[in-house]
């Protein structure tokens, strides 16, 4: 089994320059492959594989122009080409949209460094030896394990900070737990998750701390907009290029802070569900793409990060050997009465209390849905439980 650990690193000015050069070259090569593959397909009607493009890049392109591509790690450039090749294959299989060019401001590109020699990727308590970069210090000591087999690492940049993700090879061992009854989890907007074992996880986006950061974000965004308007009025170039770049970094840090808060909260919720030691966990197959078409709820749905919640829950259930069940998106979990099983045909979104017309029972709407999910008989198993 493979497992990755990610932490922040501290780089020297020379190392920052090398990492930025590597990331920029990988972005340039990725975009070059996307552009070349499109042109090749229009002219010949054939697909240009990443392997063929790599041979053309090394033997023809770098000799005629852009020889600076060879100044960085060849493995990082090769991995950028393979990422583009995988993006095209996923598009042809119908698993993803057509590959798009990567922008510098999005900071999605990562530099890949494999372990080529025994002296590469040596992990110590406070540092790691990265090929072509040298010894890199961790900001947090003791988080990256030192007694596991290292496969590779990736260095990324976000909001003027640098992170390293180290991939290890570990033994797969399912943790033994005493199993109790299952849990139904109803995801929503008012609360992130309402569980059948009387546990409610609130929406962290509505907390006072989160709203203060969002208010600060709006203020900094207006400040950046004023800088842009000021630059447009200047003749002979931009007036405050450096100050504008500083303002962009301030915005990136605020966005990264909000993202980190959401991710850590989702991990906390998933860990709490797993620590309850259930025999199984049942969730819904939410049509997030369709829900996002509602312009009044799109922002709230996006901030809940339902996709990341599902992904992290699958990983944790696989680790602990818990069966994760998923019911169909057409399963009427909110309209069924958890007491008698009669379906209520008309149930508006504003009705937060479920009142059954047959047995006259009253129950909170989301808690009723979690109970129906818990006792659902038709489902799909998402985890591999032995």
From TrEMBL:
Biological process according to GO: DNA recombination; transposition
Cas12f1-like TNB domain residues: 306-373
Residues annotated as domain Probable transposase IS891/IS1136/IS1341: 167-295
Domain Transposase putative helix-turn-helix intervals: 1-46
Keyword DNA-binding belongs to the record: yes
A Pfam family assignment: HTH_OrfB_IS605
GO MF, one example: metal ion binding
Keyword set, alphabetical order: DNA recombination, DNA-binding, Metal-binding, Transposition, Zinc
Domain of life: Bacteria
UniProt similarity note: In the C-terminal section; belongs to the transposase 35 family.
NCBIfam families per UniProt: guided_TnpB (NF040570), IS200/IS605 family accessory protein TnpB-like domain (TIGR01766)
Protein name as annotated: Transposase
């Amino acid at each position: 089994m493979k497992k990755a650990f990610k932490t922040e690193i501290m780089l020297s000015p020379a190392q920052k320059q090398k990492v930025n050069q590597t990331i920029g070259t990988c972005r340039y090569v990725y975009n070059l492959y996307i552009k070349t593959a499109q042109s090749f397909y229009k002219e010949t009607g054939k697909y240009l594989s990443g392997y063929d493009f790599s041979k053309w890049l090394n033997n023809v392109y770098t000799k005629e122009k852009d020889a600076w591509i060879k100044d960085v790690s060849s493995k990082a450039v090769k991995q950028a080409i393979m990422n583009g090749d995988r993006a095209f294959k996923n598009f042809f299989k119908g698993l993803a949209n057509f590959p798009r060019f990567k922008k510098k401001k999005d900071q999605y590109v990562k530099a890949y460094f494999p372990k080529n020699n025994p002296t590469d990727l040596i992990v110590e308590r406070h540092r790691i030896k990265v090929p072509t970069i040298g010894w890199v210090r961790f900001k947090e000591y003791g988080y990256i394990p030192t007694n596991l087999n290292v496969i590779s690492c990736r260095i990324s940049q976000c909001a003027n900070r640098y992170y390293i993700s180290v991939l290890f090879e570990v033994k797969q061992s399912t943790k033994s737990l005493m199993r109790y009854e299952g849990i139904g989890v109803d995801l929503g907007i008012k609360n992130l998750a309402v569980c059948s074992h009387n546990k409610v996880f609130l929406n962290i986006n509505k907390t006072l701390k989160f709203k203060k950061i969002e208010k600060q974000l709006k203020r900094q965004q207006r400040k950046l907009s004023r800088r842009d308007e000021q630059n447009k009025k200047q003749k002979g170039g931009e007036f405050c290029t450096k100050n504008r770049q500083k303002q962009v970094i301030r915005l990136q840090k605020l966005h990264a802070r909000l993202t980190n808060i959401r991710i850590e909260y989702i991990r906390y919720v998933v860990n709490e569900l797993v620590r309850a030691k259930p025999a199984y966990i049942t969730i819904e197959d939410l049509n997030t793409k369709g829900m996002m078409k509602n312009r009044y709820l799109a922002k709230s749905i996006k901030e809940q990060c339902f996709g990341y919640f599902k992904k992290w829950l699958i990983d944790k259930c696989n680790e602990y050997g818990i069966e994760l069940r998923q019911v169909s998106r057409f399963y009427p979990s909110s309209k069924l009465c958890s007491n008698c099983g009669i379906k209520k045909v008309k149930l508006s979104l504003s009705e937060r209390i479920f009142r059954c017309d047959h047995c006259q029972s009253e129950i909170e709407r989301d808690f009723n849905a979690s109970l129906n999910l818990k006792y659902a008989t038709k489902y799909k198993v998402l985890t591999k439980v032995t």
